[in-house]
Each structure stands twice: as C-alpha cells, then as structure tokens.
TrEMBL record:
Keyword Hydrolase: no
Protein name: Ribosomal RNA large subunit methyltransferase E
EC number from the UniProt entry: 2.1.1.166
Entry keywords, A to Z: Cytoplasm, Methyltransferase, rRNA processing, S-adenosyl-L-methionine, Transferase
Cellular compartments annotated: Cytoplasm
Reactions catalysed according to its record: uridine(2552) in 23S rRNA + S-adenosyl-L-methionine = 2'-O-methyluridine(2552) in 23S rRNA + S-adenosyl-L-homocysteine + H(+)
Record-linked HAMAP family: RNA_methyltr_E
Gene Ontology molecular function, alphabetical: rRNA (uridine-2'-O-)-methyltransferase activity
Any Gene Ontology CC annotation: cytoplasm
SUPFAM superfamilies in the record: S-adenosyl-L-methionine-dependent methyltransferases
Record function comment: Specifically methylates the uridine in position 2552 of 23S rRNA at the 2'-O position of the ribose in the fully assembled 50S ribosomal subunit.
Location of the active site: 169
Binding positions (S-adenosyl-L-methionine): 70, 72, 89, 105, 129
Length: 229
C-alpha cells in the first residue's frame, strides 16, 4: 500500500479545505485521471457505468448535459471517436476536439432547441451529470435535483432514437417513484447504480434508463445502431 499523504493546516485554510486537499492527494481515481489525461475523476464514473450497462456500444450521437469540465465527453470520444457529441453547461468548458460545447443554462427555455440544432439529428444517448446547487436542506436539495433529472428526461424523450438511453445523476434514494414511473413508460429498463468511482461518502447515484420506446422524433435515414440491454 502507498503512503497516505498528510496535509498541514495552513494559516487561513479551513479544516474542511485541508481535508478535501488530503482526500484529493490520496484518491487513486484523481491520480489515474492525471496519468490518463482525463479532466476529472468523474470520467471513471461513466467508464464504470459503461462497463456495466454497455451505454457507449455503437452510439453515433450523444448529448452531454452538464459537460463541465468535460471528463464524460472525453470518455465518449475515446470510446467512440466517430460519434457526434454536443454538450452544454453554465460553466465555461475548455474545448474538446470533436465536441460542440454550448455555454448556457440547460434550464434556459432556448437551450433544448440549441442542442437539437447543434446535434443535427436524433441521439443514441443522453447523459446528465448535472447537479443543482445544494442549500443543505435535504428536501429542497432533492427537489432541485429531481427537477434537473425530469427536465433531462423531457429532453431525452424529444431527441432519442428508439432503443436509446438516458443516464442522470440523482441523490441517495434515487429518483422518486413518480419519476421512475415516467421513465418506465418511455424505456424498457430503469435501474439505479452507484459506480465504484463515486465516493462512498457521496450521496450521488445514477439512474440508467435503456431501450427508449418512443417514435423517432426526426426524419433520420440512418439505421438505429444502439443495442439496448
């Protein structure tokens, strides 16, 4: 086992900040991300979800909601280099070769159409690693997060090809019953997962909906290349 790195509490630095820095220095996913040139350890959450669910198999078009800093789109690019990828985030995101990035709030009413225009056709996969700003009140934080998941679902239903998939971050306890029921109306399978790269102390989980049942929203001459589980 490697030595655990300790960080001295510097003047002006909060204890919580020292603990965060110490955790970063000793996190194998952080070290791996640096070695493999991923922008964040979060990239491995998608890698592990893909290993379990086969999300990236044969995909030709992907939407990345909450793209910053770009780790998930990097994974998609490396796994399926020819896929069209469009991402959106309120935060600035450094360019990624082959990825169209929109710097705007996904909850802006103009955002869905901007994403559709940039994508230029239906999607095989909609990814959402969006997170609402937490206020420390569990019920409020849950409602804000579920609002993002629901908005992402509405968008996914509009853009996905039949057989497509939607993956979204949720908090501990997963998506609520009403939202899960809505997903089951649109997808053949809906499961919750916590990839190993998600820290044990974190409240985040992911909901994975596969096998989109809907009609094709675009007139798209290309065959569906998604293989639902």
């Amino acid at each position: 086992m490697g030595l655990v790195k300790r960080v001295k509490t510097a003047r002006g630095r909060k204890i919580s900040s020292t603990r965060w820095l110490e955790r970063q220095l000793n996190d194998p996913y952080v070290q791996r991300a640096k070695a493999e040139n991923y922008r964040s350890r979060a990239a491995y959450k998608l890698v592990e979800l893909d290993e379990r669910f086969g999300l990236l198999k044969g995909v030709g078009a992907v939407v990345d909601l909450g793209i910053a800093p770009g780790g998930w789109s990097q994974v998609v690019r490396r796994t399926t280099p020819k896929a069209r990828i469009v991402g959106i985030d309120l935060l600035p995101t450094d360019p990624i070769e082959g990825v169209t990035i929109l710097e705007m709030d996904f909850m802006d009413e103009a955002a869905p159409q901007r994403l559709k225009d940039a994508l230029g056709g239906p999607a095989d996969l909609v990814l959402s690693d969006m997170a609402a700003n937490t206020v420390g009140h569990q019920q409020t934080d849950h409602l804000r997060t579920m609002g993002l998941v629901e908005a992402g679902l509405d968008f996914a239903v509009e853009v996905l090809k039949p057989g497509g998939a939607y993956v979204a971050k949720v908090l501990a306890g997963g998506a609520d019953n009403q939202l899960v029921a809505a997903m089951k109306r649109h997808f053949t399978t809906v499961k919750h997962a916590k990839p190993p790269a998600s820290r044990k102390g974190s409240s985040e989980w992911y909901v994975v909906a596969q096998g989109f049942k809907g009609e094709r929203p675009y007139a798209d001459p290309t065959p569906n290349t998604t293989h639902p589980e």
